[in-house]
Amino acid sequence: MSYFSLRQVSKSYESQTALHEFSLELAKGEFLSIVGESGSGKSTLLRIAAGLMTQSSGEVWLGDQQIQNPKQKLVAGYDEIKLIHQDYHLFPNATVEENISRPLMNYDPEYKKLRVKSLLEQLGLEKYKDRLPRQLSGGQQQKVAIAQALAVEPEVLLLDEPFSHLDTIQKHKLIFELKEVLRESGTTVIFVTHDLDDALRLTDSVLILQKGKVIQKGNSRALCEHPKTRYVARLFSPINLIPDRLDNYIRPADVRLRTKGELLGHVIDQRFLVHYNSLLIRLRNGGQVWEVDDPARKYEIGDRVYLHFDEEKVLVLKG
Ligand code: ADP
Ligand code: MG
Q1: What does the pLDDT look like over 123-146, one tens digit per residue?
Q2: Quick one: which atom of ligand 1 is closest to the CA of 19?
Q3: Ligand 1 pocket check: which of 6, 43, 161, 164 to mutate, most ligand atoms within 8 Å of Cβ?
Q4: Alpha carbon separation from 233 to 196, 205, 248, 308, 318 (Å, rounded)
Q5: Ranges for the ABC transporter domain (predicted)?
């Protein structure tokens, strides 16, 4: 059952289409990530979804309420739909506790007290409640921003690359904690990012956006194993074109290296990465360069290798 939906939403700036007939339906409490490269229309999409930007055409619905755009509504935006982006500003001279309670100004004082206490607890911020934003790490500040947005118990939380300023360790920790808090609260969440790995850490369900259009939507496994286009496939890993075969590709992790075989190449570059060595191999036939994983860290520049792969791992990708 659809709870939060965008129906055929389009948006053009003067000369350019940022969103093209974009439709989406989410059930209550559903989590979705939207992944797309920079400029694919992610921020435009979320601002329209929050009622903060006027679309060229199309509708946004929350339950049986149509979301009014800034041209239709005196005070743009809704308490039910909160948008958080990477440059979200906290009040610099207010403590963590004051920042979180700010949106609850007009609420019953008793409720306000309990709500702030519960958010501080859920997000592990009790220790920091009397600090100013500048006395916190980037990850902690972003958590306070999220707590502030959650204060009024929004139905929908829209996250626009909120982790971009954080280092990887902070980011993974925050995503993990956030997932718990949001699940418990039953909030409906749309998370947009250019980083597929971040998306997969927060949600299983992912929509791929390219040039303002939906390219593919599915769970992580389906997208990885059955990408519809090269663009989708490349979000997971590089892909190597198989010589003399039309639109047939193989991933670096699906190539095996042997001392015998048919497809011969030479290692021309070798990089020591966290989980495996990454090799660049120039194929003898045609001179094309493949990227291949070497999990045993066995091969070096100059080595001759034969490349093998299973037919079932071959991706057939057009466009
Ligand atoms: P993303 O968040 O995925 O990077 P955006 O929604 O910010 O994408 O932008 C989508 C497209 O619309 C881009 O090509 C961008 O240059 C263009 N765009 C965004 N905002 C404006 C604006 N205010 N005026 C003109 N063009 C814009
Ligand atoms: Mg953006």
Answers
A1: 899 999 999 999 998 888 989 999
A2: 10
A3: 43
A4: 11, 16, 12, 20, 11
A5: 4-236
